[in-house]
Amino acid sequence: MFQKNMELELLIVDMGVDGTGIGKAEGVAFFVKDAVIGDRVLIKVMKMKKRYGFGKLLKVLEPSPYRVQPLCEFYRQCGGCQIQALDYAQQLKYKEKKVRSNLQRIGGFSIRDNTECEKQGILFHPIIGMEEPFFYRNKAQFPIGTDKNGKIVTGFYAARSHHIIPNRKCCLGVDINEKVLDIVISFMEDYHITAYDESTGKGLLRHVLVRFGFNTKEIMVCLVVNGRRIPHAQKLVERLAELSGMTSITLSVNEKNTNVIMGEEIVRLWGQGCITDTIGDISYQISPLSFFQVNPIQTRKLYETALAYAGLTGTETVWDLYCGIGTISLFLAQRAKHVYGVEIVEAAIADARNNASLNGIENVTFFVGKAEEILPSFYEDSMQESAKEPCPEISEGDIRESAAGEAEICKVEGQPGDMLHPDVIVVDPPRKGCDEKCLETILKMQPERVVYVSCDPATLARDLKYLCEQYYEVREVQPVDMFPQGVHTECVVGIQRKHI
Ligand code: SAH
Prior knowledge:
Elements: E1 7-15, E2 21-25, E3 28-32, E4 40-48, E5 52-62, H1 88-105, E6 111-113, E7 122-124, E8 139-146, E9 152-157, E10 164-166, H2 176-190, E11 205-212, E12 219-225, H3 233-241, E13 246-253, E14 265-271, E15 275-279, E16 282-286, H4 296-310, E17 317-321, H5 327-333, E18 338-343, H6 346-358, E19 364-368, H7 371-388, E20 424-427, H8 436-445, E21 449-454, H9 457-467, E22 472-480, E23 490-497
Parallel strand pairs: 3-5, 6-7, 7-22, 12-13, 17-18, 17-20, 18-19, 20-21
Antiparallel strand pairs: 1-2, 1-4, 2-3, 4-5, 8-9, 8-11, 9-10, 11-12, 13-14, 15-16, 21-23, 22-23
The structure holds S-adenosyl-L-homocysteine.
């Protein structure tokens, strides 16, 4: 009944996980990019499937009461912000709804709000949003290219393409980005430095990475180069070093024909190789290749919630799985007996160890490897050992430690835990969630509490369902808006062991 190229009117009643508007006509759902909930729109049908279709937004006939004028004029072309045309309060509602519906639909959980204290179910806290939901990013990567007139351009890739939209003023980033780009581009023009061309693999400058320490005001510039040096680099360095706060200027060598932005080799041009920033009382050294959360204001709130759910008093043993550069581990270590961090990327663990010593934190140990391999190998190996050598009677406070200070095997009920029976396990996996082997081992280790920091509510709900089949229950959920104007949604979940 609906055919390609037909035009029709729709009321947008919902928004999908990627921020696309959804409206229905005669029971058939249509996905319409750039339409927001509450809009009445005219669309052109672009593609039909059996039960749904895709439409192109031709005209907003009646704007939604939640529609706002986007701050960025390139909003529709750029793939960066999917929901900038939606009022911020509605963005937050959209994200809350996403978390709730995943927990209910995939996890099978019931949910209660703060106000309904008597009822059973997960306590769902209102999402923590930002007062100023723009200019929050501490990191930006700008591609450099040449337009059809031969002029050097920088900005952002158009959605799903490598066409550069010339825009130096992204409203998610900080002011300093534009100043850095102005200097780099005028230097390239003055000294005839070429921009990299992906199609030919020729040209020199590929990307400019800018990082800014929100608390320290330190600036890092890293120039990604198809080569090992930039001619007249000293002139560029002189100009950049004049910016107040400039701390680190480096080159990243990337001579490969690849979509990966950064090359692995970093060459220092001026200043330090890294910048420092703080979250709470902890300082972190951030190098060009380090992973660091991009929204420092919200990261602090996220970590404080994780810390609160961990319920630490100073005596606990904690595992921090998927620990990155140890950001959460160091936060937890201030209030725990010992924290064990696990992370797959070796360089991140080097940063984590470095950050621990920078802060004089000694009660942390980091392991490189997959969470689903490291955790089971510790557990299974030690269980086999302890089966050979049965546990002696344990008296109060008798938490044994081997001479090498490694495995502590026996846990006394009500006593602080040890490495194999920790008090708390924190997980912060990538979007695909935790591997089942990892979850299975968590259940075997029986920590009193599990804190799940998630960047994908669907895999979160799946993993919580697994954890809560028997011995655990989800106590509370706190969504935190780490990416205003975008669709991604983070939350922290407090999970408690049931004492049956
Ligand atoms: N907790 C950190 C990092 C979270 S991002 C922070 O808040 O900064 C998720 C991390 O998990 C990344 O650093 C990624 O490299 C790591 N990772 C991905 N798969 C993993 C696995 N199977 N085992 C351990 N770490 C993994």
